[in-house]
Amino acid sequence: MKKSILSIASICGILLLSSFSLKALPNGDAFVNDKVLKSFSTVFSNAANVQWSQIGDRYYVSFSQNDMRVRAEYDKKGEMLSSLRYYDAQHLPLNILCNVKKAYPDKSIEVVTEVSIPEGMAYVIQLQDSKGWTILRSDVNGNLNVQDEFNKP
Hints:
Blueprint: H1 2-19, E1 23-24, H2 34-43, E2 48-55, E3 58-65, E4 68-74, E5 80-87, H3 94-103, E6 108-117, E7 120-128, E8 132-139, E9 144-151
Antiparallel strand pairs: 1-2, 2-3, 3-4, 4-5, 5-6, 6-7, 7-8, 8-9
């Protein structure tokens, strides 16, 4: 039950943060709540290319940090509700990397999306080979599930 809730929350978080058309806020961040800005700058002090957006009472920020693209969602109290980090295989936890390489030795890892919500963390891993793509989901323990598969035309 907990795994299915985490899966649903992970997918919802990915869709929410990546597919909505957001209202961009001015570069000066004048409309971003002070609590949100303080919370963000405390955790992500060396963020670059910061861009804020807002939907209702939620704030969304997209930025770069340590060669990773990051998106985060905050409430008006400055609490981070979820985050997504996009990176390549070298940043994947070793237990998960080993499980992926063992299960799919002929496929390369194209991109990893790390989904973090209050209930836990999950990883969405996109693999590719000459035939197509495989999308895996992994929990922090390295348990892998195939989410989808696509063949090249």
